[in-house]
Design a protein that fits this description.
- By secondary structure, the chain is α+β, with helices and mostly antiparallel strands.
- It contains eleven helices and 18 strands.
- The protein has helices spanning about 1-30, 35-45, 50-60, 65-90, 90-110, 120-140, 150-175, 180-185, 255-260, 290-295, 320-325, and strands spanning about 240-245, 250, 260-270, 280-290, 305-310, 315-320, 330-335, 340, 350, 365-370, 395-405, 405-415, 420-430, 435, 435-440, 450-455, 460-470, 490-495.
- The strands form four sheets. The chain has a five-stranded mixed beta sheet.
- A hairpin with a 5-residue loop joins strand 13 and strand 14.
- Helix 1 packs across helix 4, helix 1 (about 1-30) packs antiparallel against helix 6 (about 120-140) and helix 2 (about 35-45) packs across helix 5.
- The chain binds the ligand Nc1nc2c(c(=O)[nH]1)N[C@H]1C(S)=C(S)[C@@H](COP(=O)(O)O)O[C@H]1N2 and molybdenum atom.
- The ligand Nc1nc2c(c(=O)[nH]1)N[C@H]1C(S)=C(S)[C@@H](COP(=O)(O)O)O[C@H]1N2 binds next to loops.
Length: about 500
Amino acid sequence: MQAEVKRCAVAGVAALVAALAAGHVVAAVVDPAASPAVAAAGAVVDLTPSAIVEWAKHVFGTHTKTALALGMTLVLTAFALVTGLVARRNRTAAYALVGVLAAVGFVAVLTRPAIASVGLLAPVVSGGVGVVTLRFLLGRVEEPSEPVGNRRQFLLTAGAVTLGAVAAGGLAQLLAGPNVEASRRAVAGLRPRRKAPPIPAGADFAAEGTPSMITPNDDFYTIHTAISPPRIAAEDWRLRIHGMVEKPLTLTFDDLRRRPLVERTLTLACVSNPVGGDLVSTATFVGVDLADLLADAGVQHGAEQLFSTSEDGFTAETELGPVLDKSRGAMLALLMNGEPLPLQHGFPVRMIVPGLYGFVSATKWLVDLEVTTWSKRTAYWTPRGWARKAPVKTQSRIDRAEARDGRLTVAGTAWAPPHGIKAVQVRIDDGPWRTAELAAEVNRNTWRMWRAVLPIAPGDHRVTCRATDNTGYTQTADRAAEAPDGATGWHSVDVQ
Ligand SMILES: Nc1nc2c(c(=O)[nH]1)N[C@H]1C(S)=C(S)[C@@H](COP(=O)(O)O)O[C@H]1N2
Ligand SMILES: [Mo]
C-alpha cells in the first residue's frame, strides 16, 4: 500500500518532467520561445504585478530568474505529486488534471509575443507525452502479488524515463541557441539623444482609406530569403567593419548603444513592389548614424561600395555616396517604433539607407560591413538579375476610390525618398489631371498621403494617379517590370 502511494507520486512527477522535456525538444526545432516551460515563465513574469517584480529584483538581484525557476519547480512538482496521488483512486480525474496543466501551457505559448503558429505544436506534443507517460508508468505501479524485485523495477523504469527526458531537454536547450526574447526585453530601454519630430496631426488620411502614417510593427511588410529569422542575442552580437578603412573595427551591441542615438521616421520600399502594391511601410527607427560610424573607421580613397552581410548569409551592395552623405541619414537601427527590432525585421541590428530599395541597403541581422569596390564584391541579388544601384523610384497608389451621388472620393499614398512628394494628381478616364490635397509632410524620406473629391458622371470609369517629387520629376506612364531596378507606370483602379 505504502509503496503504491509513493510510486503513483513518482509516476506523476516523471510524467511532468517527460512532458516539459518533450515540449522543449519540439520547441527547439520549431521556435525556442514556444517551449511550454519557457513560455510559462514568461507569462508568470508578465502577469505578476510590476511592484512584486521590482520587489523580487530587489531581494534576489541577479538571482531573480533562479528564484522564479525554483518557485515554478515547486508549484509544478506539487501539482504533479497531487496528480499522481489522484491517479491511484481515479485515473480519469488524473488525466483531467494533466489536461488542465497542458491547457495552461498551451495558453502560455499562445499568448507569448511573436510565436510562429508551428510553435503551438510544442505544448500539444507536451500534453500528449504527459498523458502517455503517466499511463505507461501507472500501468507498472499495481502488481497484485508484489514479486521480488518489482519495487526496484518500477523505480528503474521511472528513473530511466526522467533521466532520458532531462537529457533530451538539455540537448535541445544546447541546440536551440540563445533566448532572443529575453535579449530583446533587455535592450528595450534605449533612448535617442535626438528625438525625431513628433508626427503632426493630419499626416495621414486613414479615415479616407490610406494606411496610417506609422505602420505598426506587426503590419510592416516583411521580405527575406531566410527560412526563419536568425536568432542572435544582443550580447553575443558583433559587427566587423573592415576592407578599405584606416581603422578596422569590431563593435559590440554595447558599443553601438553608447554612441549618440538618433531617431528617424523613414519609409522603406521593396524593389519587388508592383505598381499599386503594398511592399512599402513606414516606421520610426532609433539607432546610430552610419556616416559617423564609417567616419570613425576612416573610409579610404577609391572605395565605391559598402558590402553588408547578414548572419544568415544574405549580402547587399550599397553605393557609398548616399551612405556617406550626412544629410541622407543612413543608420544602423536598433529600435523600431519604440521596441527592439522584431526578429523578422533584423534583431539586433539592421542597416537602413533612406531612398534606396531594401535589397541594396536594408540588411537585417547585420554582422559585417566591408568597404570595397564594385569589382571586388558581388551581392546576393546581383547574379539573379537585379541592379547593383537601386534608388527608390517615385511611386503613387490609390488606396480607395468610391463614386456616389456624382462625386468620386479618392485617397492614396505617394513616396519618393529622399526627395519627398511635391504634388499628386488624379484623373478620371482620359480627363484633365486634377491636383489632390496632400497630407502634412513628416519629412522627405517618408511617404505622403493624398486625397481628392471630383465630380464624376454615372457609369464605369477608370481613376488614375501620378506623383511629382521635389526634383520636379513626374512619374512616367511607361510600364516597367519590377526587375531589375523597380516598377514604373501609373496606378489605375476601376469605379462604378
Ligand atoms: N538578411 C536579409 N536582409 C534583408 C533581406 C534578406 O533577404 N535578408 N531582404 C532585403 C529586402 S529585399 C527588403 S525589401 C528589406 C525588407 O525589410 P523588412 O522585411 O523589414 O520590411 O530587407 C532587406 N534586408
Ligand atoms: Mo525587397
